[in-house]
Amino acid sequence: MNGLFGSTVLEVAIGMAMLYLLLAIFCTAANEWIARMMNARAATLENALRELLDGQQSLAAGGAKLVDEFYGHPLIGGLMKGGKHPSYLAARNFAGILMDLVTPEHPGTITFDQLEEGIQKLPQGNVRRTLLALIQGVGRDLNAAQKAIEGWFNDSMERVSARYKRRTQMWTLIVAILITIATNADTIHFAQRLWLEPALRSMVAAAAQHATMTASDAGVAQLGQMIGWRTQQDWGLLGWLERVLGWLLTVGAVSLGAPFWFDTLNRFVNIRAEGRSPAEAAAR
Predict the structure, then answer these.
(1) How far, in Å, CA of 134 to CA of 157, rounded?
(2) I need a surface site. Which of 82, 97, 113, 180 has the fewest CB within 10 A?
(3) Distances (CA, A) of 30 to 3, 26, 33, 198
(4) Residue 209: CB partners within 8 Å, gap ≥ 6?
(5) What is the pLDDT of residue 97?
(6) What does the pLDDT look like over 55-93, one tens digit per residue?
(7) Per-domain residue ranges for the chain?
Protein backbone atom coordinates (compact mmCIF):
# COMPACT_ATOMS: atom_id res chain seq x y z
CA MET A 1 0.00 0.00 0.00
CA ASN A 2 1.30 3.48 -0.84
CA GLY A 3 1.39 6.43 1.52
CA LEU A 4 -1.87 7.99 2.61
CA PHE A 5 -2.05 10.70 -0.06
CA GLY A 6 -2.79 9.25 -3.47
CA SER A 7 -2.80 5.86 -1.77
CA THR A 8 -5.05 2.84 -1.76
CA VAL A 9 -6.70 4.06 1.44
CA LEU A 10 -7.57 7.45 -0.01
CA GLU A 11 -8.76 6.04 -3.33
CA VAL A 12 -11.01 3.58 -1.52
CA ALA A 13 -12.39 6.46 0.57
CA ILE A 14 -13.06 8.48 -2.60
CA GLY A 15 -14.82 5.54 -4.21
CA MET A 16 -16.98 4.91 -1.15
CA ALA A 17 -17.88 8.61 -0.81
CA MET A 18 -18.80 8.77 -4.49
CA LEU A 19 -21.00 5.70 -4.15
CA TYR A 20 -22.73 7.06 -1.05
CA LEU A 21 -23.27 10.39 -2.81
CA LEU A 22 -24.95 8.68 -5.76
CA LEU A 23 -27.24 6.62 -3.52
CA ALA A 24 -28.01 9.66 -1.33
CA ILE A 25 -29.05 11.63 -4.41
CA PHE A 26 -31.48 8.84 -5.33
CA CYS A 27 -32.75 8.87 -1.74
CA THR A 28 -33.28 12.64 -1.80
CA ALA A 29 -35.14 12.45 -5.12
CA ALA A 30 -37.40 9.71 -3.74
CA ASN A 31 -38.06 11.75 -0.60
CA GLU A 32 -39.03 14.78 -2.65
CA TRP A 33 -41.37 12.66 -4.74
CA ILE A 34 -43.01 11.27 -1.60
CA ALA A 35 -43.37 14.78 -0.12
CA ARG A 36 -45.06 16.03 -3.31
CA MET A 37 -47.35 13.02 -3.54
CA MET A 38 -48.41 13.40 0.09
CA ASN A 39 -48.48 17.21 -0.11
CA ALA A 40 -46.53 16.98 3.14
CA ARG A 41 -45.27 20.57 3.44
CA ALA A 42 -48.69 22.11 2.81
CA ALA A 43 -50.40 19.69 5.19
CA THR A 44 -47.82 20.42 7.89
CA LEU A 45 -48.33 24.17 7.53
CA GLU A 46 -52.11 23.85 7.61
CA ASN A 47 -51.99 21.74 10.78
CA ALA A 48 -49.63 24.25 12.39
CA LEU A 49 -51.88 27.22 11.57
CA ARG A 50 -54.96 25.44 12.87
CA GLU A 51 -53.14 24.54 16.09
CA LEU A 52 -52.08 28.16 16.44
CA LEU A 53 -55.51 29.71 15.89
CA ASP A 54 -57.93 26.94 16.81
CA GLY A 55 -60.17 27.40 19.85
CA GLN A 56 -60.41 31.16 19.36
CA GLN A 57 -63.65 32.77 18.20
CA SER A 58 -63.50 35.78 15.92
CA LEU A 59 -65.27 39.13 16.14
CA ALA A 60 -67.79 38.03 13.54
CA ALA A 61 -71.38 37.46 14.65
CA GLY A 62 -72.56 33.89 15.10
CA GLY A 63 -69.48 32.60 16.92
CA ALA A 64 -67.33 32.04 13.82
CA LYS A 65 -63.90 30.61 14.50
CA LEU A 66 -60.88 32.83 13.97
CA VAL A 67 -59.14 30.10 11.98
CA ASP A 68 -62.05 30.02 9.49
CA GLU A 69 -61.95 33.80 9.19
CA PHE A 70 -58.20 33.52 8.61
CA TYR A 71 -58.65 31.12 5.70
CA GLY A 72 -61.39 33.30 4.29
CA HIS A 73 -59.08 36.32 4.08
CA PRO A 74 -58.10 37.39 0.54
CA LEU A 75 -54.39 37.41 1.40
CA ILE A 76 -54.31 33.70 2.06
CA GLY A 77 -57.05 32.89 -0.42
CA GLY A 78 -54.78 34.25 -3.15
CA LEU A 79 -52.09 31.75 -2.15
CA MET A 80 -54.43 28.75 -2.40
CA LYS A 81 -54.18 27.94 -6.09
CA GLY A 82 -56.80 25.47 -7.17
CA GLY A 83 -57.98 25.17 -3.60
CA LYS A 84 -54.63 23.69 -2.54
CA HIS A 85 -53.12 24.86 0.70
CA PRO A 86 -49.85 26.79 0.27
CA SER A 87 -46.67 25.13 1.47
CA TYR A 88 -45.22 28.43 2.70
CA LEU A 89 -46.60 31.52 4.40
CA ALA A 90 -44.51 34.61 5.14
CA ALA A 91 -44.57 35.89 8.70
CA ARG A 92 -45.53 39.38 7.52
CA ASN A 93 -48.60 37.93 5.74
CA PHE A 94 -49.64 36.03 8.85
CA ALA A 95 -49.30 39.15 11.01
CA GLY A 96 -51.06 41.32 8.43
CA ILE A 97 -54.04 38.96 8.17
CA LEU A 98 -54.37 38.63 11.94
CA MET A 99 -54.15 42.40 12.51
CA ASP A 100 -56.77 42.97 9.82
CA LEU A 101 -59.13 40.39 11.34
CA VAL A 102 -59.05 42.01 14.79
CA THR A 103 -59.68 45.49 13.39
CA PRO A 104 -62.60 44.96 10.96
CA GLU A 105 -64.00 48.42 11.72
CA HIS A 106 -60.79 50.11 10.55
CA PRO A 107 -59.92 49.04 6.99
CA GLY A 108 -56.57 50.32 5.74
CA THR A 109 -54.08 52.03 8.02
CA ILE A 110 -54.58 51.49 11.74
CA THR A 111 -53.04 52.80 14.94
CA PHE A 112 -51.70 50.88 17.90
CA ASP A 113 -54.71 51.90 19.98
CA GLN A 114 -57.09 50.51 17.36
CA LEU A 115 -55.14 47.23 17.27
CA GLU A 116 -55.20 46.92 21.05
CA GLU A 117 -58.90 47.74 21.16
CA GLY A 118 -59.64 45.08 18.53
CA ILE A 119 -57.66 42.42 20.40
CA GLN A 120 -59.46 43.24 23.66
CA LYS A 121 -62.83 42.82 21.92
CA LEU A 122 -61.99 39.25 20.95
CA PRO A 123 -63.83 36.57 22.95
CA GLN A 124 -61.79 34.87 25.62
CA GLY A 125 -59.30 32.45 24.10
CA ASN A 126 -55.64 31.56 23.74
CA VAL A 127 -55.06 33.80 20.74
CA ARG A 128 -56.51 36.82 22.57
CA ARG A 129 -54.30 36.18 25.59
CA THR A 130 -51.24 35.64 23.40
CA LEU A 131 -51.76 38.82 21.37
CA LEU A 132 -52.30 40.91 24.49
CA ALA A 133 -49.12 39.49 25.98
CA LEU A 134 -47.18 40.17 22.78
CA ILE A 135 -48.12 43.87 22.60
CA GLN A 136 -47.43 44.60 26.26
CA GLY A 137 -43.73 45.31 25.84
CA VAL A 138 -43.66 47.14 22.51
CA GLY A 139 -44.03 50.68 23.80
CA ARG A 140 -47.32 51.25 21.97
CA ASP A 141 -45.45 51.05 18.67
CA LEU A 142 -47.54 49.52 15.88
CA ASN A 143 -44.52 48.35 13.87
CA ALA A 144 -43.04 46.72 16.96
CA ALA A 145 -46.38 45.04 17.64
CA GLN A 146 -46.40 43.61 14.12
CA LYS A 147 -42.83 42.38 14.58
CA ALA A 148 -43.85 40.69 17.83
CA ILE A 149 -46.70 38.86 16.08
CA GLU A 150 -44.32 37.84 13.30
CA GLY A 151 -41.90 36.55 15.93
CA TRP A 152 -44.68 34.46 17.49
CA PHE A 153 -45.41 32.94 14.10
CA ASN A 154 -41.72 32.29 13.36
CA ASP A 155 -41.18 30.62 16.73
CA SER A 156 -44.15 28.36 16.09
CA MET A 157 -42.86 27.51 12.61
CA GLU A 158 -39.45 26.57 14.03
CA ARG A 159 -41.12 23.97 16.22
CA VAL A 160 -43.17 22.75 13.26
CA SER A 161 -40.03 22.58 11.12
CA ALA A 162 -38.35 20.45 13.76
CA ARG A 163 -41.29 18.02 13.71
CA TYR A 164 -41.29 17.97 9.91
CA LYS A 165 -37.54 17.32 9.90
CA ARG A 166 -37.95 14.36 12.25
CA ARG A 167 -40.69 12.97 10.01
CA THR A 168 -38.48 13.49 6.95
CA GLN A 169 -35.60 11.71 8.66
CA MET A 170 -37.89 8.75 9.26
CA TRP A 171 -38.84 8.66 5.58
CA THR A 172 -35.17 9.07 4.62
CA LEU A 173 -34.30 6.01 6.68
CA ILE A 174 -37.10 3.95 5.11
CA VAL A 175 -36.16 5.03 1.58
CA ALA A 176 -32.47 4.39 2.27
CA ILE A 177 -33.29 0.85 3.39
CA LEU A 178 -35.35 0.18 0.28
CA ILE A 179 -32.73 1.61 -2.10
CA THR A 180 -29.92 -0.24 -0.35
CA ILE A 181 -31.63 -3.62 -0.58
CA ALA A 182 -32.97 -3.02 -4.11
CA THR A 183 -29.46 -2.19 -5.37
CA ASN A 184 -27.70 -4.69 -3.10
CA ALA A 185 -25.53 -1.82 -1.91
CA ASP A 186 -23.22 -3.64 0.48
CA THR A 187 -20.55 -1.40 2.03
CA ILE A 188 -18.31 -4.32 2.97
CA HIS A 189 -18.46 -5.77 -0.55
CA PHE A 190 -17.77 -2.33 -2.09
CA ALA A 191 -14.78 -1.72 0.13
CA GLN A 192 -13.35 -5.17 -0.62
CA ARG A 193 -13.69 -4.72 -4.38
CA LEU A 194 -12.13 -1.27 -4.32
CA TRP A 195 -9.29 -2.54 -2.14
CA LEU A 196 -8.55 -5.64 -4.22
CA GLU A 197 -9.10 -4.20 -7.73
CA PRO A 198 -6.59 -1.41 -8.42
CA ALA A 199 -7.94 -0.76 -11.92
CA LEU A 200 -11.52 -0.27 -10.69
CA ARG A 201 -10.32 1.81 -7.76
CA SER A 202 -8.22 4.09 -9.96
CA MET A 203 -11.00 4.57 -12.51
CA VAL A 204 -13.52 5.56 -9.86
CA ALA A 205 -11.05 7.92 -8.16
CA ALA A 206 -10.08 9.45 -11.51
CA ALA A 207 -13.73 9.92 -12.44
CA ALA A 208 -14.32 11.81 -9.19
CA GLN A 209 -11.16 13.88 -9.76
CA HIS A 210 -11.82 14.82 -13.38
CA ALA A 211 -15.52 15.47 -12.86
CA THR A 212 -14.68 18.00 -10.16
CA MET A 213 -16.41 15.97 -7.50
CA THR A 214 -19.56 15.14 -9.45
CA ALA A 215 -20.76 11.75 -10.62
CA SER A 216 -19.58 11.69 -14.25
CA ASP A 217 -20.82 9.15 -16.78
CA ALA A 218 -17.60 7.18 -16.35
CA GLY A 219 -17.90 7.24 -12.58
CA VAL A 220 -21.52 6.15 -12.64
CA ALA A 221 -20.65 3.36 -15.08
CA GLN A 222 -17.90 2.08 -12.80
CA LEU A 223 -20.09 2.31 -9.72
CA GLY A 224 -22.84 0.52 -11.64
CA GLN A 225 -20.58 -2.52 -11.83
CA MET A 226 -20.60 -2.72 -8.05
CA ILE A 227 -24.33 -2.75 -7.34
CA GLY A 228 -27.28 -4.89 -8.24
CA TRP A 229 -28.32 -8.53 -7.98
CA ARG A 230 -26.61 -9.81 -11.11
CA THR A 231 -25.38 -13.08 -9.63
CA GLN A 232 -27.13 -15.56 -7.41
CA GLN A 233 -24.85 -16.94 -4.72
CA ASP A 234 -25.31 -19.28 -1.81
CA TRP A 235 -23.81 -17.05 0.84
CA GLY A 236 -24.64 -19.24 3.80
CA LEU A 237 -25.41 -17.93 7.27
CA LEU A 238 -22.14 -16.05 7.75
CA GLY A 239 -22.39 -14.65 4.25
CA TRP A 240 -25.87 -13.35 4.90
CA LEU A 241 -24.82 -11.85 8.23
CA GLU A 242 -21.96 -10.06 6.49
CA ARG A 243 -24.31 -8.88 3.73
CA VAL A 244 -26.85 -7.53 6.24
CA LEU A 245 -24.07 -5.74 8.15
CA GLY A 246 -22.91 -4.23 4.85
CA TRP A 247 -26.45 -3.06 4.10
CA LEU A 248 -26.80 -1.51 7.56
CA LEU A 249 -23.54 0.39 7.09
CA THR A 250 -24.77 1.65 3.71
CA VAL A 251 -28.14 2.73 5.13
CA GLY A 252 -26.42 4.65 7.92
CA ALA A 253 -24.09 6.37 5.45
CA VAL A 254 -26.80 7.24 2.91
CA SER A 255 -29.02 8.61 5.68
CA LEU A 256 -26.43 11.34 6.27
CA GLY A 257 -27.64 12.96 3.05
CA ALA A 258 -26.22 14.05 -0.29
CA PRO A 259 -24.80 17.41 0.96
CA PHE A 260 -22.69 15.60 3.56
CA TRP A 261 -21.21 13.20 1.02
CA PHE A 262 -20.72 15.93 -1.57
CA ASP A 263 -18.63 17.92 0.93
CA THR A 264 -16.78 14.78 2.03
CA LEU A 265 -15.97 13.84 -1.54
CA ASN A 266 -14.74 17.38 -2.14
CA ARG A 267 -12.34 17.08 0.77
CA PHE A 268 -11.03 13.66 -0.27
CA VAL A 269 -10.46 14.74 -3.85
CA ASN A 270 -8.69 17.92 -2.73
CA ILE A 271 -6.45 15.94 -0.39
CA ARG A 272 -5.57 13.55 -3.20
CA ALA A 273 -4.86 16.44 -5.56
CA GLU A 274 -2.55 18.10 -3.03
CA GLY A 275 -0.83 14.83 -2.16
CA ARG A 276 -0.26 13.62 -5.73
CA SER A 277 3.10 11.98 -6.23
CA PRO A 278 5.74 13.68 -8.49
CA ALA A 279 5.14 11.01 -11.17
CA GLU A 280 1.39 11.67 -11.14
CA ALA A 281 1.90 15.44 -11.17
CA ALA A 282 4.26 15.19 -14.16
CA ALA A 283 1.76 13.04 -16.02
CA ARG A 284 -0.93 15.69 -15.79
Answers:
(1) 17
(2) 82
(3) 39, 6, 5, 33
(4) 14, 269, 272, 273
(5) 93
(6) 888 887 667 889 989 998 998 888 887 778 888 899 999
(7) 8-38+172-283, 40-161
